Amino acid sequence: MSASTDARVAVVTGAAGGIGKAIARDLANHGWSLVLVDVNEREARTAEAELGILTAVAIVVADVSDRHTHVLAADAAEQLGTLAGWVNCAGITIREPLHAITSDIADRVIGVNQYGSLWGTSVAVDRMRGTGGAIVNMSSVHARASYADFAVYEMTKAAIEALTRNAAIAYGSQGIRANAVAPGAIMTPALAASFESAPDADGARSDLAERSALGRIGEAREIASVVTFLLSGAASYVTGQSIVIDGGWTSMLGRDSADPSRRRTAGGSE
Ligand SMILES: NC(=O)c1ccc[n+]([C@@H]2O[C@H](COP(=O)([O-])OP(=O)(O)OC[C@H]3O[C@@H](n4cnc5c(N)ncnc54)[C@H](O)[C@@H]3O)[C@@H](O)[C@H]2O)c1
After folding, report:
1. Number of Cβ atoms within 10 Å of the Cβ of 147
2. Where are the domains of the chain?
3. Catalytic residue numbers?
4. Please, which of 8, 36, 88, 146 could form a disulfide with 15 given CB 3.0 to 4.6 Å?
5. Residues 212-235, mean pLDDT to the nearest whole number
6. Is the CB of 85 under 6 A from ligand 1?
């Protein structure tokens, strides 16, 4: 599909992955042109081919921890139309107990998650000054609550929420909104692979599902629809927030086994 100068364009990083690709697809379905950023060239090209049927798409195959990647993405967006949305979704997790974390692990996770979001947000606000726009950064429930072996990941996600607040208050007067979304457990290839490596894959899957109030793992499209909302005019007075999308996971103290009404009789989505 060809570019149009009045098109609204969004940059989506990590767009070849589970959640990023769902976000890109949902934005395309809502009329956005797209710049897809990812290090995985094969999957990025697959996403480009799939989404190119719906909208104008450009790809940047490069590492988000490098600021220049975001400059290339912004340049590509301005070729397609008006840069009005930016989603920093690329992220990685490496499980390691806090006492055993190496510089290599810390550099990799901080590089992708924290520097990737920092440079993406920095370039986005720079290019959106004057015209306005909306940014969404990818946090996690891990910004607020902990699993034992996720220290670096959790640190980066909390930092992403702080960065988001800063962008919101520093650039709000220039028509730029910045929000984060904080997903719970979402079924993506990354999560599926973590189940496969568990000693009891089915047990790990159902255990995670039971931790949410809705009794199921979320779907990537359920993150995408909130991101599309946050980039849209319908969210014109929403800024500086982190929206938790976790099926109620972080609202639960746990199951009360003494309360018969809490015994689950059926799972699945409504
Ligand atoms: N899946 C979940 O349950 C869950 C929950 C909370 C938050 N998140 C967050 O959502 C985001 C996406 O997660 P996902 O589950 O879709 O993972 P995923 O692994 O499917 O997707 C991540 C994408 O980021 C890309 N990427 C990795 N390093 C990169 C780099 N240096 N430069 C550019 N691209 C890079 C990968 O190639 C991949 O396409 C991450 O930020 C993750 O922390 C996921």
Report:
1. 12
2. 8-244
3. 153
4. 36
5. 98
6. no
